[in-house]
Amino acid sequence: MNLLYLIGLPVLTAAALLLARSKEQVRWISFAGSVAQLALALALYFAFRQERAAGNTAAMLFDQTWPLFKSLHINFHVGVDGISVAMILLTSFVVVSGVLVSLNIEKMTKEFYFLLILLSLGAYGFFISLDLFVLFFFLEIAVIPKYLLIGIWGSGKKEYSANKLALMLMGGSALVLVGLLGLYYASHGGTFDLMELSHLGIPADTQRILFPLLFVGFGVFTALFPLHTWVPDGHSSAPTAGSMFLAGISMKLGGYGCLRVAVFLLPVGAKEYANIIIVLSSIAILYGAFATMMQKDLKYINAYSSVSHVGFSLLGIGMLTHTALTGAVLQMVSHGLMTALFFAVIGMVYDRTHTRMVNDLGGLMKMMPFIGTIFFIVGLCSLGLPGLSGFVAEMTVFMGSWENADLFHRIATITACMSIVVTAVYILRAVGKVMMGPVTNPVYLTLKDANWNEKLAAVILLAGILAIGLAPFWLNDLVRPATETIAHQILQVTK
Amino acid sequence: MMEPGLYQILFISAALFFTGVYGFLTRRNLITMLMSVELILNSVNLNFIAFNKYLWPQKMDGLFFTLFVIAIAAAEAAVAIAIIINLYRSHNSIDVENAEDLKY
Amino acid sequence: MPSIATIALIPLLPFAGFVLLGIFGRTALKKPAGYLGTALMLASCILALYTAYGYFFDFGKIHGAYQKLVPFQMTWLEFSKDVSINIGFILDPLSAMMLVVVTFISLMVHIYSLSYMKGEERFGTYYAFLGLFTFSMLGLVLSSNIFQIYIFWELVGVSSFLLIGFYYDKPSAVAACKKAFIVTRFADLGFLIGILVLSYYGGTLDFGTLIARLTDPSSTQMQAAVNASFLGASALTWGAVLVFIGGAGKSAMFPLHIWLPDAMEGPTPVSALIHAATMVVAGVYLVARLFPVFAISVPGALHVVAYIGVVSAMIAAVIACTQTDIKRVLAYSTMSQIGFMMFALGVSGYGGEAGLGYSASLFHLFTHAMFKALLFLGAGSVIHFVHSNEMKDMGGLRKLMPVTHITFLIACLAIAGVPPFAGFFSKEEILLAASRGNTGIYYMALITSGLTAFYMFRLYFRIFWNKEAGHDAHHGKEGGFALLFPLVLLALCAAGAGFIPFGEYVSSDGTPLHSEFDPVFSIAPVALGVAGILLASWFYLRANDRADRVAASLKGLYTAAYNKFYIDELYLFITKKVLFNLVGRPAAWIDRNIVDGAVNLVGNETVAFSKLIKKLQSGKVQQYAIVFLGGVLVLAVLFIYIWH
After folding, report:
1. What range does the domain containing A159 cover?
2. B71: domain range?
3. Which of C165, C106, C182 is nearest to C137 (CA)?
């Protein structure tokens, strides 16, 4: 399997989009391109499994290298392990359904899809890069389209939100860049290569300085408390697909970066700062959940609940045990699917009722049973119902966290566990208000249920959620060996 | 007649330079200011030639620079006059005070 | 031994019903939904009976004791080499008995609903939800892994939520289903942490291994769990108590019972199935499943179980005496009876004669399922007839609804503990176990069983006797075959189930327990029961004002009990006032104003600073030139005279 296809495909799609002549063509090209991405991601998954089954135990599979700047030892080095494959799968699912729900975009259709595809290009490139320079390059590619998506197609105070998001993410990237340069010079060999750096044994003092830079930098992307405030504003202003990409893909870039770059390369730093990460993420989990309880706008509800849910993956990373790290990755995948679906459904509701205020809505289940059912299922996933992906991920994080036997970790775990109750409160409040109860506005009585593209989009994401929720072993088997490599790095420090 | 020495030429060029600077700082008319800039540039040209002739007569570097400066001065004049014409079109005047509202 | 497929089909058939009806129940399968669901349930029930029969009479008993068999297990989610969630089936007396109870009651409810729910707009969806619930409940009782139980535990919770909120356009139903889910969810938090504690010390999630390790004082796991202590109790005690909290939430034990009465907003057959016979006894099942750990290793936790159980039984009985909504009376009675089961477990020991309470508790679970389902279905029949839940709209129905009347009477006699009906035998065993275990609990239980007789017959007399509430023959007949058949069948069970020698089959350690009937011991409870019935008849047989006068003379107590001792208000205060206003609102405020404020502050300060320095950019070209010139001169001077 040649990983370059993953980069080539979005590039080709984008090029085709530029040549497209009508809105219809634009839509079909994007749809075909995104389906091809999905197929490619699935093919990658099966190829990866086959390779592993054949006994290939290398840390990174399908890796390829081309020199980029010889004098600086910068190479275009790509390769994947279980975590990357899981993330690529997630991205492709979100891309397809994001494209599907935006078929009704009329304003600057071509540019809209171009940006969506560009964002997916950035994400794929980020997930397969093994060279930090290239990784950073793709990270930046993924940031810019978000600014435009919100600024042009957004709603509400979109300029403010777009600026805030772009500036905060750029601030994060700046920290990352400093950290990466630090790594480059700390490796006296002068390399950006991830695998080479991991064997190098960077001195503890350097790690102490670099770890916070990299972790906080990537943390901004994944809504690390207290740098999460771009999340509510950004999500609420973004168009539906924008929110889906933002929460489903772009927040995962940060989580992946925290894990793959910060923790993997700087295990000493990770160990020393772990307690701070744990404190911040437990605060985020519970505080995000309580803040969600008071929100009135559906998008704000989901945005704050994202802060809370992403806290679980950061908590898993902070706990540093093998199981917890696995749980962190599972949570990233699960949250990506779930939250993308949630935003998609909120978008569907908004398109019909033109309001997102919980108090104005009511009794929609009667008119739109499909949307109502999906809304309910995704809510259940969010509150961690077994059979859906959220449960698997959260329980893995909890089990992994509990392996740390001291009181501090216990209290943090219990704090995190408490959120399952608060989550139930706000999810049921939203579901009860919006979908159940009497119909609040007679205008709603004439509303139509989802049309085919919305149904397909929802079903694709739901399939992902169910595939993880009902049979988590495939994802677990995919991710566990990869997180073991990271856990091994940390274990070596302890010895 | 006595051939002028380096000092004389430098004196003239300095005078030319400060005349230009004075003109640039005091005139309100943009064309005049442009002319002042030309004076400054020409004083520099004079310096280049003088230094070339008196200090390194076997080299041509000074002449080259002079040619460069003349070429660039011509380009600059073209651009500047274009700007001035535009300014005149919008403000009906070429007073430098009117260019103030181009700031930020 | 039946094949794995046979056992697997027991839960999977209802699940198939859920999937089919969930997808097509609104369209293609709307008409035949009821028959499809019922047929699948019938098949499931037959398989369950076949399996249970085989277990009890054929392959289950080896060397004189019933064994725990795990015919099937697969890894579902692996946490580490030893700790993983396995999905599997366990067959032991407990699960075999529960299989029968769940499938049988569910079948009865399926049949009953054919008539009761006829004409509902979401008829297909209703059967889909019933299928989901039955699947989850069966998965729960078959669990071989403590995490598997948690999984299905949550699933029964959500199916209960769906069914309580079935009439989702009624605000009270929405409120009730939310309340039920959130309260049980709160309890599940305890359960989850309990699982974490137990699995950490046990090093496994598998029931068999976990119980073996945590009951063997010489095992390293057990020693670690006993030695680790937190706030004065051992880790093992904490684990057991936390798991019990989960059970207490699901089983509506005081003080987590507040959701159960509200849950009666759901359709009545659902109340019969979920909130009377099966789901609410999941807590009892859970404690029974982990009983060896409770009884052998942490007797302290078992005391908690006992006291919570008896207190709940008593409080619920007192409240039940004052309620006027017939379903709420039944709800409190359910809570009270589950309290009986709980404290029976609590006073029991492990193995042999000491395990009497264990058998008695599960015996009561078994008989209670029969007569309580019957009571609810009977109440449903009455509600169907008079279109009201309130006692004041009823009275004198015995002639209009003869079948309902007789079956309801049988159920009331059974729950009141009148021989020879089923409840008599099981309650007798519970009281016997209590009298041997803990005298204080015994006396409280005795009073409660008197109260039980009183409030049940209050209910009975007010529905079927008392004043005629003006229901004429124009209401027609009391319902068709589908409505009455389950009533009759359940009445037969409620009358005869007591004669099963239950201890022979289900006992704490698997060896048969021979319980003898002791007529002398029975005098006190039976006498109290009869006294309760007589008192109720004195108050309520004919319309009179005696009850009101007594209520007036006991004003304080009556008002408190009528208002359920204000526990709901207390919860409301804690959630609304404390959590929403003192935690949620500040959190949201802090986020918008302090955390986000800091971000905006950085932005605004940057803008302000740039405003400050942009004055330098005046737009006056000549001013720039002077500054420039000055700069050049200064630099020139510096270079020439200072740095040269």
Report:
1. 4-494
2. 6-101
3. C106
B100 contact residues in C (CB cutoff 8 A): 618-620
| Helix, strand or coil, per DSSP, at residue C514 | coil
Q: Which of A304, A83, A30, A446 is nearest to C587 (CA)?
A: A304
pLDDT per residue as tens digits for the range C204-224:
888 888 888 888 888 887 777
DSSP symbol at A222: T
CA distance A163 to chain C (A): 10
Q: Are C25 and C124 in contact (CB under 8 A)?
A: yes
Residue C547 CA, chain-centre distance (Å), reads: 33
| Token couple for C84 | 């993983």
Phi, psi of A210, deg, nearest 5: -75, -35
Give the pLDDT confidence of C120-155 residue by residue, as tens digits.
888 888 899 999 999 999 999 999 989 999 999 999
Q: Are strands C69-78 and C84-91 parallel, antiparallel or unpaired?
A: antiparallel
The CA distance from A72 to A468, in Å, is 42
Measured in residues, chain C has a length of 644
| Cβ-Cβ contacts under 8 Å, C585 against chain A | 294
Instruction: Give domain status of residue B1, yes or no.
Output: no
Residue B75 lies in a domain: yes
- Does C471 have pLDDT greater than 60? no
Q: Which residues contact A395 (CB under 8 A, 6 or more apart)?
A: A327, A384, C77, C85, C147
Q: Does A470 touch chain C (CB under 8 A)?
A: no
Residue B1 has pLDDT above 70, yes or no: no
Instruction: Specify the number of domains making up chain B.
Output: 1
Contact C619 B96 (CB under 8 A): no
Q: How much is the pLDDT for A495?
A: 59
Q: How far apart are CA B60 and CA B56, in angstroms?
A: 8
Average pLDDT estimate for C552-566: 78
A335 near A306, Cβ under 8 Å? yes
User: C623: nearest CA in chain B?
Assistant: B25
Task: Confirm if C21 and C127 have CB atoms less than 8 A apart.
Answer: yes
Helix (H) or strand (E) holding C76: strand C69-78
Q: How far C642 CA sits from the closest chain B CA (Å)?
A: 23
Does B43 score more than 90 pLDDT?
Answer: yes
- Rounded to the nearest angstrom, the minimum Cα separation between B1 and chain C is 36
Q: What is the pTM of this model?
A: 0.87
Distances (CA, A) of B98 to B25, B31, C624: 16, 14, 15
- Considering only CB atoms, which chain C residues are within 8 Å of B102? 619
Instruction: Note whether A touches B: 3 CB pairs or more under 8 A.
Output: no
| B54: in domain | yes
Q: Tell me which chain A residue has its CA closest to the CA of residue C229.
A: A407
Give the CATH number, domain containing residue B90.
Answer: 1.10.287.3510
Of B26, B33, B102, the CB nearest to C619: B102
Q: What is the pLDDT of residues A359-396, one digit of tens each?
A: 888 888 888 888 989 999 999 999 888 889 989 999 99
For chain A, positions 23-52, list CB contacts with chain C under 8 A: none
Whether residues B24 and C622 touch (CB distance < 8 A) is answered with: yes
In a domain, B70, yes or no: yes
Residues of C in contact with B98 (CB under 8 A): none
Q: What is the pLDDT of residue B80?
A: 92
Which of C76, C186, C599 lies at the smallest CB-CB distance from A229? C599
| Tens digit of each residue's pLDDT (9 = 90 or more) over A160-211 | 888 888 888 999 999 999 999 988 888 776 788 888 888 887 888 888 889 9
Question: pLDDT band at B32, cuts 50/70/90?
Answer: very high
Q: What is the pLDDT of residues C297-312, one digit of tens each?
A: 888 888 889 999 999 9
Contact C603 A168 (CB under 8 A): no
Return the structure tokens found at C81.
């080499």
Q: What digits encode the pLDDT tens for the residues B57-96?
A: 888 888 999 999 999 999 999 999 999 998 889 888 888 8
Q: How many domains does chain A have?
A: 1
